[in-house]
């Protein structure tokens, strides 16, 4: 075959291949979607990654703290964390995680995120400055949620 006959064939194939990935590409899951379908293990996204990447998650956390009269600790975006794992509580699907201050997990947040409502409940536990523990809940958790948050 001559090169002149092959050129249109190659051009057509190149155009078809260039168009194919756009049609065949599977949508990339957000970190929240990954967390909803993971097994709670190390392959699940971690709190700091989701906090940095997901605006609704970050907003729910920060608004919950503000309403409870708490300030977000500066270490939160880079804290030591557990993966977000799916749990069902009070008949609703939630994501459970915790984050603590590096080298001092005596200061920590435990959270339950509701992806459908884009809301969060949680608890902050840290020093009260007198040798005791200060525990402050935010986001109005139910009794079952508060128990789970305290244990996490």
Overall geometry: globular
DSSP summary: helix tally: 5
Helical proportion, percent range: 25-40%
Q: Report the β-strand fraction as a percent range.
A: 25-35%
Report the uncertain regions.
Answer: none
Main sheet overview: 6 strands, antiparallel
Through-space gap between termini: 70 Å
* Strands, count: 6
Structural class: alpha+beta
Mean pLDDT: 84
Report the radius of gyration as a whole number of Å. 23 Å
What order do the helices and strands follow?
Answer: HHHHEEEEEEH
Organism: Janthinobacterium aestuarii
Signal peptide: 1-24
Pfam family, one: Ivy
Protein name: Ivy family c-type lysozyme inhibitor
Task: Explain the overall architecture.
The protein is of the alpha+beta class. The chain is 38% helix and 28% strand. It contains five helices and six strands. It has helices at residues 3-24, 31-36, 47-53, 55-67, 143-151; strands spanning 80-81, 85-89, 92-101, 104-114, 119-127, 133-138. Helix 3 (47-53) crosses helix 4 (55-67). The protein is globular, with a radius of gyration of 23 Å. The chain starts with a helix and ends with a helix.
Short précis:
The chain is an alpha+beta fold and 152 residues long. 38% of the residues lie in helices and 28% in strands. Strands 1, 2, 3, 4, 5 and 6 form a six-stranded antiparallel β-sheet that branches.
């Amino acid at each position: 075959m001559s090169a002149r006959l092959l050129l249109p064939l190659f051009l057509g194939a190149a155009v078809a291949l260039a168009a194919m990935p756009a049609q065949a590409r599977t949508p990339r899951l957000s970190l929240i979607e990954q967390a909803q379908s993971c097994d709670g293990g190390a392959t699940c996204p971690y709190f700091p990654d989701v906090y940095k990447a997901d605006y609704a998650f970050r907003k729910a956390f920060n608004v919950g703290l503000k309403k409870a009269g708490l300030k977000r600790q500066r270490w939160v975006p880079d804290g030591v964390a557990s993966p977000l794992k799916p749990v069902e509580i009070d008949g609703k699907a939630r994501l459970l995680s915790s984050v603590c201050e590096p080298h001092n997990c005596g200061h920590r947040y435990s959270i339950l995120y509701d992806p459908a409502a884009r809301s969060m409940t949680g608890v902050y536990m840290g020093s009260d400055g007198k040798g005791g523990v200060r525990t402050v809940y935010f986001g109005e958790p139910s009794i079952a949620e508060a128990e789970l948050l305290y244990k996490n």
